[in-house]
Every structure is written in structure tokens, then in C-alpha cells.
Amino acid sequence: MNNIALVVGASGIIGSNLAQELLANGWTTFGLARNPRTELAGLQPIAADLLDVTSLETALADLKPTHVFITSWMRNDTEVENIRVNSAMVRNLLAVLSPKGSVQHVALVTGLKHYLGPFEAYVSGGGAPPTPLRESQPRLALDNFYYAQEDEVYAAAARDGFTWSIHRPHTIIGKAVGNLMNLGTTLAVYASICKETGRPFRWPGSQAQWEGLSDVTDARVIAKQLVWAATTEAARNEAYNVVNGDIFRWSWLWGRLADWFGVEPVGFDGTVHPLEAEMAQDADLWRSIAAQHGLVEPELSRLASPWHTDLDLGRPIEVMTDMANSRQRGFTVYQRTEDSFFDLFAQLRSDRLIP
Question: Are strands 248-249 and 201-202 parallel, antiparallel or unpaired?
């Protein structure tokens, strides 16, 4: 039987890289989004609203996927609303697919807020969790939409008999335009602005992040882990952290990123300098830079997400993850982190997204 993948959130940073990985491995691949991508050769787009059951029923009427990959979410003003909306998205999708009886495996992508707490209670759920973060650590006693999404998958799996996997990446490094959480592209845009204006490339975050150990997740690595977990019997019905496999300190990496752009790096100076404030007045400047260099995206808000970069780099603790759970089951993909950034920067420049 052919593998038929439904990638939910195929226009996003993870979903788009996953679609490429699936297609490269010969999968029949459908990409579901409100505004699905059409430029990826071989990807069959499906336009649907996960909050509208009728929309889903119509869009998926003729589709019987064997594997479902849920990589999208919707940000709301409170965690209570995050739970209501994002659990409904998962529940609606799996309920519409249930009568078909075709689904063999469902993969859900969440993240390290599983351990650190939701946006409105970030790293405040009774003290800092021990690092490296491990999948065996218990849930926090906090509202968290990741938990609600997981519970929807578990309930549907018990009802319909499919296997599942949960994937918890750290900060994703990869190309996506219009993405809510995109540290790599945000730093590339910030460095480009610094280059054009002569401003220093100043570390925006905390001392703990500057000095502590960290890791990140290349979008290509999580794509490979998602396919591995969906096709490896020993990997099923488990939660997995997913990072590049190396560790670093921002105090080491920051200067290397600055060198790539030819800007002056400035490290932690005793004060947090949030990027959201630093870039708050740069929208018109970016339009000017885009016009001058013939860039294809003149809207700063479509490329940079400084609010989320501030959450990552402003944490009062070091954050790194343990990969033993997937390593001992056979997932051995490794990616050098500085090359994740350099590859992204080169792609952004080649695609005329940065000068």
C-alpha cells in the first residue's frame, strides 16, 4: 500500500520542510493549510479551515491518508483560548478522518513549552526545570495547549486504532515567510538592518542564555525525524525531543553569526535589550532596504518575529534537551548548528529575502 501523507500546516517552517522530505522519499503528499503552498513541485494543496468541520469534510471528501502530520497551531491572547482553539483543530481533523478508517499513524509537533510552560507563564511553573530536558519529565501543573493537543491525539488513537508520535523541537531554524516563530530569519533581518545602518549587532537576551548551554532544531532534522517515527515500528507511541545533536553557547555563536554578515557583534552588557523594542520602528526602513536591493518581501512583519525571539533569548535559564529516547531507537541524524544558520542565511539571500 502506498504511503499517503497529509501534512497539516504545509505552508509553515516545519510543514514545508516535511513535505519536501516526504516527496523526496516517494510519498504521495497532500498539504493542508488555509492558504496552501502551490510552488513545491509534487505537493497537492488542500485549502481548509481546521476550525470549520464542514470545510474539512468538503476538502477531505476524496482523501484517505495513511499518515497525518500535524505541524500547525493558532496563537490566541490567553492560554485558555489557546487550549480551546488548538485542541479543537486537532479534534475536528481526526474526527473527520475517522470514518475513512485509513489512518495508520498520526504525528503531532509541539515544542519545549511542554517543559517550560505556556507563553503567559513562561519558565514560571514552580521553578526552572532540570536540564537537559527529558521526555520522562512530568507535565507542569499549568494550563498548556500542548497537553490538550496531545490528549486529543491519544483519545483518537484509542478510538481508531492508529499509532502516534509526539515531536518536541527547540527553536526551529529554517526558511518560512509569514511564520509566527522564526528566530533564524529574525536574526538575519536584524543583522541586515545593522549592516545597512551601521548599528551594532547587539545581543538582545539574558545573561543566562548568553552564558548557558543551548541547542536548536534544524527544520530538515525534524522533517527526517517525523518520517522516521512514522515508518519505524520501534518508534511508535512515543514522545521525542528533537534537536540538532550538538550544543553551543550564544557567547560563542553570536560573533560567528555577525561575521557572516560583516557586522560588529556586541555581547551581553548587563542589560536585556529586547529585539521587539529594537526593531519597533524599522518597518519603513525595511521597505526602503527592500526597494534598494530588489527584495521580494518588503513587509518586516512577514519575515521577523522579534517577540518570539525575545522569549527564546530572554529566558532566565539555560535550555538544552536530551535526545536519548530517539537515539536508542535508531534515529541518528546530526546537524552542525552554525551550518543550520549559515545555510539558512545563504538561502534567504539567494531567494532575495535579505540583501
Answer: unpaired
C-alpha closest to that of 135 among 321, 313, 338: 321
The pLDDT of residue 219: 97
Q: How far apart are CA 344 and CA 172, in angstroms?
A: 11
CA nearest neighbour of 240 among 112, 340, 62, 72? 112
Compute the residue count for the chain.
355
**100 part of the active site:** no
Candidate list 146, 190, 195, 240, residue with the active-site label = 146
φ, ψ (nearest 5 deg) of residue 234: -70, -10
Cβ–Cβ under 8 Å, residues 205 and 272: yes
Tell me how far CA of residue 211 lies from CA of 105, 224, 313, in angstroms.
40, 30, 11
Peptide bond preceding 204 in cis form (omega within 30 of 0)? no
Q: Is 281 helix (H, G, I), strand (E, B) or coil?
A: coil
Q: What is the mean pLDDT of each run of 10 residues along the chain (355 residues)?
A: 92 94 97 84 95 97 98 92 97 98 98 87 64 95 96 98 98 83 93 97 97 97 98 97 98 98 98 97 98 97 93 92 97 98 97 97
pLDDT for residue 127? 63
What is d(CA 296, CA 282) in angstroms, rounded to the nearest whole number?
17
Q: In the annotation, is 224 catalytic?
A: no
> To 5 degrees, how large is the angle CA 33–CA 354–CA 37?
15
Residue 250 carries which side chain, given as an amino acid letter? W
Predicted TM-score of the model (pTM): 0.94
Q: Which three cell numbers stand for residue 340?
A: 543550520
